[in-house]
């Protein structure tokens, strides 16, 4: 999410009230950013492990790990803790927040604005499956394109391959050495990962929420639990469908000289690992995207309710 680097489906009913001084779109941005901060900090270790898994069998590591051989999650976590202690599991936190927090806010505000343009009300009940996919894809694409340089920096920080000291320093180094192309490397697979994830998530979520009997949602506690369950199920399905694009994105952003195109990265994955290579990092990514989306959605719901957006 931006829900990747964090995105999720939110069935919101943006009711605009004259009593509030700030525009609803701004409130959606602030609420999304706050919920994105909470979930990003909590689940950063899973994102770190996912990146290490996907980069473990790249050319730099091949001599150590062997052809097609990758370390497991437990080995990666153990090595990180040995080298950098527990705090090492949160490596890349700053670029993650730099990307995810405004990204989540932009996603929600874009989604809110798009729904207003289409005059969509009560999307959890009235929105169609294809319309949900379209809204999620467009909203995520808008935020993804704007924040792709920070996605590149985040991936490189987490990989342990690059020795950047700060986000601004990383941006300067990439611009100096690789130019604009370096800041936007992997844009195609990033959008092919995030936009479909958001669209599929929103479709699964809204359709799943429709299936819940109205009487089950009368209790706020029970409603939150049911919505959380819908979010978890939607995250699992959307994560599995978009993981191949995530694998290719990581390869291209870590080694742009070795993988200048989607085709070159795809050929390398296929020749080195076969079809199973496209599932690299699926477990930590699925856990992170699913739990992050579901938990961040719960936080977002409470904030939007207190702000008068629901």
Features:
globular, 310 residues, disordered N terminus, 72% helix, mainly alpha
Please summarize what this structure is.
It contains 12 helices and no strands.
Write up this protein.
By secondary structure, the protein is mostly helical. It has twelve helices and no strands. The longest helix has 35 residues.
Number of helical stretches of at least 4 residues: 12
Q: How many DSSP E strands?
A: 0
Query: What would you call the structural class?
Result: mainly alpha
Strand proportion: under 5%
Distance between the termini: 22 Å
Determine the fraction of residues in helical runs and give it as a percent range. Answer: over 70%
On the 0 to 100 scale, the average pLDDT is 78
Shape: globular
The main sheet comes to: none
Radius of gyration: 19 Å
Order of helices and strands: HHHHHHHHHHHH
Low-confidence stretches: 1-20, 59-69, 121-125
Spell out the blueprint of helices and strands:
Layout: H1 24-55, H2 59-65, H3 73-84, H4 93-117, H5 123-126, H6 129-159, H7 167-178, H8 180-183, H9 187-210, H10 220-254, H11 262-273, H12 282-307
């Amino acid at each position: 999410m931006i829900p990747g680097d964090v995105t999720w489906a939110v069935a919101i009913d943006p009711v605009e009230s004259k009593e509030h001084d700030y525009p609803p779109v701004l409130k959606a941005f602030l609420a999304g950013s706050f919920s994105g901060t909470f979930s990003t900090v909590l689940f950063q270790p899973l994102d770190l492990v996912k990146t290490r898994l996907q980069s473990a069998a790249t050319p730099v590591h091949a001599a150590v790990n062997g052809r097609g051989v990758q370390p497991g999650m437990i080995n990666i976590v153990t090595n990180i803790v040995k080298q950098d202690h527990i705090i090492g599991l949160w490596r890349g936190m700053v670029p993650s927040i730099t990307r995810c927090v405004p990204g989540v806010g932009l996603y929600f505000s874009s989604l809110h604005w798009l729904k207003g343009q289409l005059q969509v009300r009560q999307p959890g009940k009235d929105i169609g499956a294809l319309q949900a996919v379209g809204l999620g894809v467009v909203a995520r694409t808008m935020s993804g394109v704007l924040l792709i340089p920070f996605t590149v920096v985040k991936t490189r920080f987490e990989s342990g391959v690059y020795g950047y000291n700060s986000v601004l320093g990383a941006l300067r180094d990439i611009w100096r050495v690789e130019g604009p192309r370096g800041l936007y490397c992997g844009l195609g697979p990033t959008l092919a990962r995030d936009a479909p994830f958001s669209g599929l998530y929103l479709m699964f979520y809204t359709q799943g929420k429709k299936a819940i009997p109205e009487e089950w949602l009368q209790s706020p506690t029970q409603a939150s639990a049911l919505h959380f369950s819908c979010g978890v199920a939607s995250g699992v399905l959307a994560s599995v469908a978009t993981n191949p694009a995530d694998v290719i994105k990581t390869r291209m952003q870590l080694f742009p000289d070795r993988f200048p195109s989607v085709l070159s990265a795809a050929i390398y994955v296929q020749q080195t690992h076969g079809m199973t290579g496209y599932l690299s990092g699926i477990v930590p990514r699925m856990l992170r995207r699913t739990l992050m989306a579901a938990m961040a959605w719960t936080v977002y719901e409470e904030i939007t309710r207190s702000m008068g957006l629901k």
